[in-house]
Structure formats: C-alpha cells, structure tokens
Amino acid sequence: MSALAGVRPCFETLLCSLVTLLPDYLYRRYVQGKRLGKEITFYSVWFELRWGITGCLLLTVALITTVFYNHPSTSNVTIFFRIVSILPETNGRVAEIFVGASEPVAKGTPIFRLDSSKQEAAVESARRKVAETEAQISLARWDVVKADGELRQANSERQQTVDELEAKQELYQRNPGNVPFREIERLQERERGQLGAIDAATATKQSVEQRISTLLPAEKATAEAKLAEAQVELGKTVIRAGVSGRVEQSLLRVGAVVNPLAFPAGILIPEGAGYRSLQAGFGQIEAQIMKVGMAAEVTCVSKPFTIIPMVVTGVQDYIGAGQFRGGEQLIDAQQVARPDTLLVFSTNAFRKDLFPEPYGAKARASLRARTCQRRRRRSESRLSRF
Questions:
Q1: How many C-beta atoms lie closer than 10 Å to residue 204's C-beta?
Q2: What is the pLDDT averaged over residues 103-118?
Q3: By the 8 A CB rule, do 62 and 55 touch?
Q4: Rounded to the nearest 5°, which phi and psi values hold at 191?
Q5: Which carries the bigger pLDDT value, residue 253 or residue 183?
Q6: How many other CB atoms sit within 10 Å of the CB of residue 327?
Q7: 340-376, pLDDT tens digit by residue?
Q8: So what's the pLDDT on residue 369?
Q9: From CA 12, how far away is CA 238, in angstroms rounded?
Q10: Is the peptide bond before 72 cis (omega within 30 degrees of 0)?
Q11: Which of the given ranges, 107-121, 207-221, 246-260, has the highest pLDDT on average?
Q12: I need a labelling partner for 273 at 20 to 30 A (CA). Which of 12, 132, 246, 339 fits?
C-alpha cells in the first residue's frame, strides 16, 4: 500500500504535465525555435518553461487535493466487538470447573461452581421453616376441634344450669318455703359465669380459625419466599454462560478465590460479535463529505488479495476528543492532546457476514464520494419526475 501511495502522485504529475508543461515546450520549440541542449539547457529550463512548470505544480496539487478529498482513505479500520466478562455475583472459592481455558459454550452452559456450603445450609434452614409452618397449620386444625368441643361443653353446662334454675323457680313460686331464695341466686350467678365461659370458648375458636386462615398462611408464604431467596443464592454459586459464544482466558483453578470487582474468571466472546459493521476512523477534514450510502472498498491483512465492497451505514455525530467526566476541576481545551478521528460505520454491500475471522482484524478502507452524490441526484430526479 505504501508503494502504491508513492506511485500515485507521480502518475498525477505526469498527467498534469501533458496539459501544462508539454504545450509550453511545444510552443518554445516550434514557435520560438528554441531547442533542447542549445537554447534550452539544464540551467535555463527553469526560466524558459517557467509557465509550464508552475502550472504543472499548481494543477498537480489541486488534482491530488481533489482526489484525496473526494476519495478519503484510512488505515484506522477494524471490527470492534464487545466481550462479556465472566464474573460471579458474589465472592467465593472455586469448587468445580466445567469449561477449559478456551472452549465454545452454549447459552446456559455452566462454566464453574463456587463453594456452596453456606448457601446449602441456608436452603435447608428455609426448607425446615416451611415444614415447621405446615406442622403449625396442622396442629391449629386440632386446636379448632378442641375449641369447638370446649364450646359445646360450655353450652351443655349452661343448659343444665338453666333447666335446674327454671325448676327451682317453679317450686319457689308454688311454695316459697320449699326452695331457699339463696339457692336461686346461686344458680343465676352460675348461669352468668357459664355465659362468660361460652363467650371465651367462642373467642378462642375464632382466634384459632383466624390464625389458620390468615396468620399461618402468611408465615408459610414468608418461609417459602425465604426458601426461594436461598435457592436463588444457591443458584448464583453456579456461573453459567449468558449467551452462546466462546470462553477465552479462563485460567481458573480449584481453590482460587473469585472476586467480581478485582479478579474476573475470564471473558466470553458472543457469537456473531463484529459481524454487524466495520468501524473506520477518518480525519476530521472529511466530515463534510461523509454521508450514508457512500461506496467503500476494504482490504484486510487477514484476507490478502481480496477487495471487499462496503457501503457506509452510519456516521457518528460526536468525536471522542470532546468527551469528559464531571469532576472537581474546570475543563481546559489544552488538555485535548490530539484531534480524534471521525467514526464511520459500514457493512458489506452484498453479504451479511463481514469477515469470518478473526475479530478485531486491522484493515484499510477507501471511500468514494461521487457514488453517494450520483445516487442522491438520481433519487431527486426520480422524485421530481413523480
């Protein structure tokens, strides 16, 4: 590519000399009669052909500027792809490894497992709490039966007292001397006490029924929720692949401590990463001609002797040099060390896949501004005709 870059200006200089330097020489030779080696020598050629030389230089510079401006090229081309870090949600010590250092995995495939003794104990405790709540519900049903029996007993004793009181009152009405009035008062007090016992037995039965219908189911639901939470924590000890792809740099060993903030377990490269588009960085001077729909040609070191036709699908409106994070210091424009490039997205014009492999390959791209302008003019002419 460097050799071709050096030959191209020589070709443009030769092309410009055909319309500037050659006509000037022909005029000097056949009109003025000046010959090479005689009137035109190495020392006088700069004066004799000054108009042709000056015009050739100016036209060459203008041609090269026009060509490079309308056909920008760059070597800052690559396929960026996002990796997925393999990190557990909790700290722990590795107990079992299922995947090697470099191996393809499917979605949901376990990669490694942490020590889960603490989580298993929590699950067992929550499961026993659920069983205890179910036993309390079963016991409370028997308490309802017991309270119902006590209520029936209290009603029976009161009915017996009421019958005895009615009999004594009837005898007292016939002959007051047969039944002492004190006995009637004692039976009336017993009846009132038995009414209180009936109310207490009724309240006890209702309390047990309310406990069965409301309190114990709530406690059971709480215990089941804690069991589900414990099972989730237990499931977190098995780290699985979130997407299908390939695990790389997974150099874990049994007994190693994995920390999600300091020590990742490896990286996961998803399937199809980098197939969507190719990213190229062009100089900011080409921002005026970068349009969606421009044709491009890409060549990559990983695919030698191959020209891949591309089409521009997007131009980023922002340049990375201007980004900043809020802090305690004021922003100074001198902190920007160098001007960043304009990021352009392009995809294959005919095929969905860009490069089969490898991801992140370095390439070189060249765009054509005329293609986009011609297409735009054609579309505008068609719309005007319509």
A1: 17
A2: 88
A3: no
A4: -65, -45
A5: 253
A6: 7
A7: 788 888 887 776 655 555 667 777 787 776 544 444 4
A8: 62
A9: 65
A10: no
A11: 107-121
A12: 339
Amino acid at 311: V
Mean residue pLDDT of the chain comes to 78
- Joined together, the tokens standing for residue 62 give 């203008």
∠ at Cα 139 (135, 143), nearest 5°? Answer: 165
pTM of the complete model: 0.59
CB 109 within 8 A of CB 99: yes
Closest CA to 116 of 149, 82, 85, 88: 88
CB atoms within 10 A of CB 161: 19
SS3 assignment for 263-305: ECCCEEEECCCCCCCEEEEECHHHHHCCCCCCEEEEEECCEEE
Judged against a pLDDT cut of 60, whether residue 380 lies above it is answered with no
- At 128, the pLDDT band (50, 70, 90 cuts) reads very high
> How many other C-beta atoms lie within 10 A of the C-beta of residue 318?
10
Task: Give the residue, 96 or 10, on which the prediction is more confident.
Answer: 96
